[in-house]
Amino acid sequence: MVTGFLGVGKTTALLDLFSHRPDGERWAVLVNEFGEIGIDGAVLTSGGLSVAEVTGGCICCSAGLALKVTLSRLLREQSPDRLLIEPTGLAHPAAVIDTLRTPGLREHAEVSAVIGLVDPRHCTSARHLQSATWQDQVRLADVLVANKTDLCEPDDLAAFDALAAAAWPPKRAVTHTTRGRLDPAWLALTPPAEGTPSAPPHTPEAVAQGWIWPPTTAFDRARLQEALQVLVRPNAALPHGALRLKGIFRTRRAWLLVAASTDRITWSPVGHRADSRVELIALLGPADWDAVRARLEETRLR
């Protein structure tokens, strides 16, 4: 999936990716147009791609059912080796990922990396920085790309770099480009395997530890809350408790960002869809990390 705000250059980027298609592979693209008249679809078709369109609303909301129907038909009739999706620039793309992982679709389409295009000039624009849609698109991206850099000022690029550096979880790749030129290898990126370490090395005073679970794993929020309350206070596995705990968890009804300390646990919706993950920071000293992970594993939905 290639996401980005209105006018960021998604269609140009898709055409560039298509120009690198391996010989013999069948590629298709699903385009979401907010209006009833499809413009991007016509451009892509003229470029040689097999195109299906969902018009008349965002595929994350009003056109959600049309997305599922169109995807099912496209996969059944075209059987593409690779399917590219271009949501409208007004879409919250997390809902598209959720749809792709519903029964009936997940058996036929494996979700790979989300490439998010950003116009660096938007990183210094109050209108964009205050837009929940823009923020969701940035957060969801596995690969974050500053496009149109030839039109930007140094301050714009510095703002983009700072935004990318502060992202959590870290992006799989961050780069600058012009005219939508992308690395086709990004399309093959897959989520980290379950159990992959997700935390930085320890400092002289503290140690960090973390784990990653695949996006198909879901957690019981109530039991997870209880486990976190134990882990941030002195306990058998962590005698000093966790100084900080930060995570993203897929629960039964939503994906949530959690931040926990000894005095509070906060939950908030998050656009991330690549995996569930957690990072803990604790003082150096005895720690039974296997027991910590086991406590978290007990909160998984079976």
Q: What do we call the CATH topology of the largest domain?
A: Rossmann fold
Strand order of the largest sheet: 8-12-9-10-11
Please trace the helix and strand order, writing H or E for each element: EHEHEHEHEHHEHEEHEEEEH
Structural class, please? alpha/beta
Strand residues, percent = 15-25%
* Superfamily (CATH H level) name of the largest domain: P-loop containing nucleotide triphosphate hydrolases
| DSSP summary, beta strand count | 12
Cα Rg:
21 Å
Task: Summarize the structure in words.
- The chain has nine helices and twelve strands.
- The strands form three sheets. It has a five-stranded antiparallel sheet, with helices on one face.
- Strand 10 and strand 11 form a beta hairpin.
- The longest helix has 15 residues.
- It starts with a strand and ends in a 5-residue tail after the last helix.
Any descriptors?
single chain; 302 residues; alpha/beta; Rossmann fold; Hypothetical Protein Yjia, Chain: A,domain 2; 2 domains; five-stranded antiparallel beta sheet; four-stranded parallel beta sheet; 9 helices; 12 strands; globular
